[in-house]
Write a structure and sequence with these properties.
The complex is a heterodimer of chains A (268) and B (233).
Chain A lengths: L11 H45 L1 H6 L1 H13 L8 H4 L3 H5 L9 H5 L3 H19 L1 H4 L2 E3 H10 L1 H4 L8 H10 L8 E5 L2 E5 L7 H13 L1 E2 L1 H8 L3 H13 L4 E3 L6 E3 L8
Antiparallel strand pairs in A: 1-3, 2-3, 4-6, 5-6
Helix pairs in contact in A: 7-11, 13-14
Chain B lengths: L5 H16 L39 H22 L3 E3 H4 L6 E2 L4 E2 L2 H12 L7 E4 L21 E4 L4 H14 L6 E3 H6 L13 H13 L3 E4 L6 E4 L1
Antiparallel strand pairs in B: 1-5, 2-3, 4-5, 6-8, 7-8
The chains are: A mainly alpha (268), B alpha+beta (233).
Keywords (chain B): Cytoplasm, Protein transport, Transport
Subcellular location (chain B): Cytoplasm
Family (chain B): Belongs to the VPS25 family.
């Protein structure tokens, strides 16, 4: 009595175990299928609601950065990425649910009426343009806020619907470029986010100097010598290299040549 | 003047002008470096203007090209704002255009010349032109390279003469003055054109712009030096 699973003696227990096992199994299966059904219904309801939501709020998603960020966060929380192309999604679980109804094209593009997708792709195109335009000025390293300022300033010229964007949007847009195997990447230096559009690797010294630049605003050769304990020649060489890549600009009107990072020309 | 070495000019007068001669024009907001500073004249400078290395021409070629083009844009918008058609380079070096007193950074004479030379070039879109004494009477483009000493005055073409020609033609058209004889003085100085962008244009430049209209077959110029007239048709 104390132990409910204790074996009953005798041969009959053998067949009883088999029966109960199969009963458990069949019950489990029916439970599982019911759950799957419920989930499927829930998911399809959710999909249609999300679809409706995105259509009703298409304007907000486009024009209001904080609304968009919330929307993206919501999508993230439930494990869907608005930017992932359908080829992944529909082949896996989403396709099964709707029996491949959303076959070609992006599931999200259809579900969201292309709004979110297009927004980020448009934005990505703008970001690429800006990075290219300013490459000779900043060597392909530009701060995210600077890009945002430029996107907002230039919106009229290309007549796109990008009204206001947040830094978050810019970074999402850069992420959206990654399937293209592009060389665009987000770099974190200090507490600043930068977009690197030239795939050249920085060596350790250059990285250190760029980091110092974020903190100090500018560096001089002797600052590097004192703070990092570098030899003068080493410090000079690093600055020469960075200058050759347009990653720093020199100011020769200071007492000692000062090197500044053009990624922050806006000083935002 | 012009034979002084640019670097010494820059560093010596830097101190004197900034601290002694013009302390009153100093911006009160020296402690907060603004992203785009404004001039007493209301001109708002681009962000580059607050970036100290902008005032040192960069040794790296590609950086330098982009810097020159930024300077060209700055010069054009500054002159457009102040309605200036010609610049005297030596005087301009002391103005906020080339001299950011907040940062105490300035463009040296040599570098300013490089900027203008760039603007004169094909690459710079012919947005400037040196006014050389030897050819002041003709509107020919510089056929022989001028020495640096000659390069003191220049036109800033925030509109090219061809563009000006169109602007003037449109104005004549819009005010129904085709077939009327207008004097050059009327065009540039009279109250009628006060609101027009070409108001205040020097006669030399105006003649050149009208010359473009003539070439297009849109106008005819009469009269002699001093009292010239133009008729549009």
């Amino acid at each position: 009595m104390t132990n409910p699973t204790r074996r009953t003696p005798g041969l009959s227990s053998l067949s009883r175990t088999t029966i109960s096992t199969s009963q458990y199994a069949s019950h489990g299966a029916s439970l599982r299928s019911r759950q799957t059904e419920t989930l499927a219904t829930q998911l399809s309801v959710f999909q249609s609601l999300l679809h409706e939501f995105s259509i009703t709020h298409a304007k907000d998603i486009r024009s209001n950065p904080s609304f968009r960020a919330e929307f993206a966060r919501m999508c993230n929380a439930i494990g869907v990425d608005p930017l992932v192309s359908s080829h992944h999604v529909s082949d896996n679980e989403k396709g099964k649910v709707k029996g491949g109804r959303y076959g070609g094209g992006s599931w999200w593009a259809q579900a969201l009426g292309s709004t979110v997708n297009d927004f980020y792709f448009e934005l990505a195109v703008r970001v690429v343009e800006i990075c290219r335009e300013t490459r000779s000025e900043n060597g392909g390293l530009i701060s995210v806020p600077e890009v945002r300022t430029r996107v907002q300033k230039g919106k009229g010229s290309i007549g796109s619907g990008i009204d206001s964007v947040s830094d978050d949007d810019i970074m999402r847009a850069v992420d959206a470029l990654s399937p293209l195997g592009s060389c665009f990447s987000i770099m974190k230096l200090g507490h600043n986010m930068l977009i690197r559009s030239v795939p050249k690797d920085l060596n350790e010294d250059q990285g250190t100097v760029l980091e110092a630049l974020q903190v100090m605003g500018y560096v001089t050769v002797s600052m590097l010598q004192v703070n990092l304990g570098w030899e003068r020649a080493r410090a000079m060489a690093v600055m020469e290299d960075l200058m050759a890549d347009s990653l720093v600009w020199v100011d020769r009107q200071a007492e000692q040549s000062e090197y500044w990072s053009p990624a922050f020309i806006t000083g935002g | 003047m012009a034979s002084l070495t640019p670097s010494s000019t820059a560093s010596t007068s830097n101190l004197s002008t900034a601290s002694i001669l013009q302390p009153s024009t100093k911006e009160p907001s020296t402690t907060t470096p603004p992203s785009s500073s404004t001039d007493p004249t209301g001109f708002s400078f681009p962000p580059h203007y607050s970036f100290p290395p902008f005032f040192t021409l960069q040794p790296t070629l590609s950086t330098r090209q982009s810097q020159l083009s930024s300077w060209s844009t700055l010069l054009q918008s500054y002159c457009r704002h102040l309605h200036i058609f010609t610049l005297s380079l030596l005087d301009a070096l002391e103005t906020p255009l080339f001299y950011n007193r907040t940062l105490s950074r300035r463009l040296s004479l040599r570098d300013a010349r490089a900027v203008v030379d760039y603007m004169c070039s094909e690459e710079g879109g012919h947005r400037a032109e040196w006014i050389l004494a030897s050819q002041s009477n003709s509107s020919k483009k510089g056929s022989k390279p001028a020495s640096d000493d000659e390069k003191t005055k220049l036109y800033i073409f925030w509109r090219r003469p061809e563009e000006w020609a169109t602007v003037i033609e449109d104005w004549v058209d819009g005010t129904g003055q085709r077939g009327t004889v207008l004097t050059l003085y009327e065009l540039a100085e009279s109250d009628v054109t006060k609101k027009e962008e070409f108001h205040g244009m020097e006669e030399e430049l105006l003649r050149r712009c009208l010359g473009v209209c003539v070439k297009r077959g849109k106008a005819q110029i009469f009269g002699a030096e001093g009292e010239m007239g133009v008729k549009f048709f």
